[in-house]
């Protein structure tokens, strides 16, 4: 029985190199779309600053912690369990972008995208849905261009999202307990 990780990789990556439009879209999703999701988070913060300044600062703190935490956890996993990039173990993989042969699991791009998407969703439903779509496109792009297995991107999204949700509830709980005069007391009772 085939490994589902390689079967899905083959199904997605087999489309690479056959259409210049699809290749361009895949490269953009894999390399540059992460900046779009970061920009979406920044735009949300600016919008929140106009609407609810205290909540905007709270969301900013949560975003920074969630993204940082997801990357730290991802690095820890990469040091404990090394998985080679798809093109290393499967020479038939079409690699559309240059990339080092470092650890493939989990995807750093998806760690960041998952964390941002979760926090943005908790802060704003509409912006969150957009962020989720962008995160899924980033994951697809990383597999399409041949630099990740599907399991790498799914794990990255899941770990990032979990970090976003956990950070949301912990930080909000801590900030709610702080008084408005005690430094970071950003939320009024």
Mean pLDDT: 91
What is the structural class?
mainly alpha
CATH first level: Mainly Alpha
User: What is the total domain count?
Assistant: 1
- Separation of termini? 58 Å
Tertiary shape: elongated
Strand content: under 5%
Supply the CATH architecture: Up-down Bundle
- What's the CATH H-level homologous superfamily? Phosphatidic acid phosphatase type 2/haloperoxidase
* Uncertain residue segments: none
| Major β-sheet annotation | none
Tally the helices: 8
What's the helix-strand series? Answer: HHHHHHHH
**Helix share bin:** over 70%
What Rg do the Cα atoms give? Answer: 18 Å
* CATH topology grouping: Vanadium-containing Chloroperoxidase, domain 1
Q: Can you count the beta strands? A: 0
Overall description:
The chain is mainly alpha-helical and 189 residues long. The chain has one domain: Up-down Bundle (Vanadium-containing Chloroperoxidase, domain 1), CATH 1.20.144.10. The protein is 72% helix and 0% strand. It is built from 8 helices and no strands. The protein is elongated and about 60 Å long. It starts with a helix and ends in a 12-residue tail after the last helix. The mean pLDDT is 91.
